[in-house]
Amino acid sequence: MKKKVAILGSTGSIGKTLINIIKKDKKNFKIILLSADENYKELLSQARLFKVKNLIITNKNSYKKIKEKKISEKIKIFNNFESFKKIFKKKIHYTMSSISGIEGLKPTIEIIKYTKNIAIANKEAIICGWNLIEKELKKNKTNFIPVDSEHFSVWYALKSIDKEIIEKIYLTASGGPFLKYPRKKFSTIKMKQAVNHPNWKMGKKISVDSATMMNKVFEIIEAKKIFNIPYKKLSIIIHPKSYVHAILKFKNGLTKMIVHDTNMVIPIFNSLYSLNKTINSKKLDLKVLNNLNFQNIDLMRFPIIKILSKLPEKPSLFETVIVSINDKLVKLFLANRIKFTDISKKMNIMLELKEFKRFKKLRAKNVDDIMNLNNKVKFKLNNIVNDSK
Fold first, then answer.
1. Among 23, 8, 168, which residue's Cα sits nearest to residue 96?
2. Rounded CA gap, 158 and 152, in Å?
3. Calpha distance 338→381 (Å, rounded)
4. Phi/psi at 7 (nearest 5 deg)?
5. Core vs surface per residue 32-47: b (16+ CB within 10 A) or e
6. Alpha-carbon distance values, 309 to 8, 124, 231 (Å)
7. With CB atoms 3.0 to 4.6 Å apart as the test, which of 241, 292, 304, 376 could cross-link to 344 if both were Cys?
8. Which pLDDT value is given to residue 175?
């Protein structure tokens, strides 16, 4: 019997990777739902390939265009995620949630009740709403698998291990395109340089986050929440080749290093098959292993890392403030309205403002708390950024 699958964000890089994995094993899977925001042409192509009967496309213009096309009457097209209750009659086997941005939080939470397993690749959902996600996971007895290569590696390494014996977990960072770039030239960095990651092909937003090292700050927050481990036991270490994804040092003197090819196929593949299927991967790269070149982070080069010292141990709305400020600043940089160095500079300044710091003591009770705060912060930032020019 075929296992039923849903993919939220099927036209993005994570979604496409999963599509390619399933394409090689179509006889064992049936895709029930695909979703996208704007790319309706790619969505239709995927639907036809797998004979998918349910599509969600959230962008109004793209929804209008897809409705105008002559497509099979068997395909139902929806414009929002409230249609889940019309699509799912009972729990499916697996869902991939890979919608980018904080907009992915609500559908991620809503689909948990309809799936036995959920792989989440949406950083913002975990960072801002993990307490809400975890509550739904427990309530609906849904199994969660992290998809980021670092968190998947930690998740895998901790199987059958008591977390109490963890001394330290190191998440690796490549250092991005500016690891060796002259610091005196940072203020002249252009968008084209910032999105040119040496190891990974990613979207512009996440590429800029990688260049500033904000992506690694996010991953530390995610790890803290997912594994319920204090920040003092989490650290970042530079590893330019991105071959080692996580290092776990235990109190018993042993250390685990998780290594895999520099792509997202392996964590996504194993989230789908639950570690019980063989995948073709490259041979162990001894050349890289003999030159791992681990380094501590230079805070002068990556000052955004200082945010880690401002984080509260308990879940709070402050994490939403961080995500919202970063989203706005990266958009301004990509629009050539602020310098690359302004991202970390303005971020650190804004997080010290009383009107933002007060959210360290407030916790999200529902998704609306998070979404409303996100909108308020971005509205406030319009004035702050303009005034500080």
1. 8
2. 10
3. 13
4. -125, 110
5. bbbbbbbbbebbbebb
6. 34, 20, 9
7. 304
8. 93
Amino acid, single-letter form, for residue 340: F
Residue 308, number of CB atoms within 10 A of its CB:
16
- The helix/strand/coil state of 118 is strand
Q: Are 162 and 250 in contact (CB under 8 A)?
A: no
Task: Tell me the CATH number at 122.
Answer: 3.40.50.720
- pLDDT of the residue at 386: 60
pLDDT of the residue at 198:
83
Could you state, in chain order, the average pLDDT of each consecutive group of 10 residues for the chain (389 residues)?
96 96 96 96 95 96 86 87 95 96 95 98 96 98 96 95 96 95 94 88 88 96 97 97 96 96 94 88 93 94 95 96 96 94 94 94 96 92 63
Do you know the residue count of the chain? 389
Q: What is the largest CA-CA distance in the chain?
A: 64
Both tokens of 103, joined, read: 């907009």
Q: Give the integer Cα–Cα distance in Å for 387 and 389.
A: 6
Indicate if 40 and 140 belong to the same structural domain: yes
Distance CA 377, CA 153 (A): 33
pLDDT at res. 67: 85
Among 63, 59, 60, 8, smallest CA distance to 32 is for: 8
The residues, any chain, with a CB within 8 Å of residue 264's CB and separated by 6 or more, are 13, 14, 17, 147, 149
Please report, as a single letter, which amino acid is at residue 373: L
Look-up: residue for tokens 């203020």?
187
Tokens for 239, please give them: 């590893």
Residue 56: beta bridge partners? 35, 78
Q: Are both 31 and 117 inside the same structural domain?
A: yes
Q: Is 381 helix (H, G, I), strand (E, B) or coil?
A: helix
Q: Which amino acid is at 275?
A: L
Residues 162 and 307 in one domain: yes
Residues 233 and 256 in one domain: yes
The pLDDT value recorded for residue 71 is: 78
User: Which residues, in sequence order, are CB contacts of 363 under 8 Å at separation 6+?
Assistant: 131, 314, 315, 316, 317
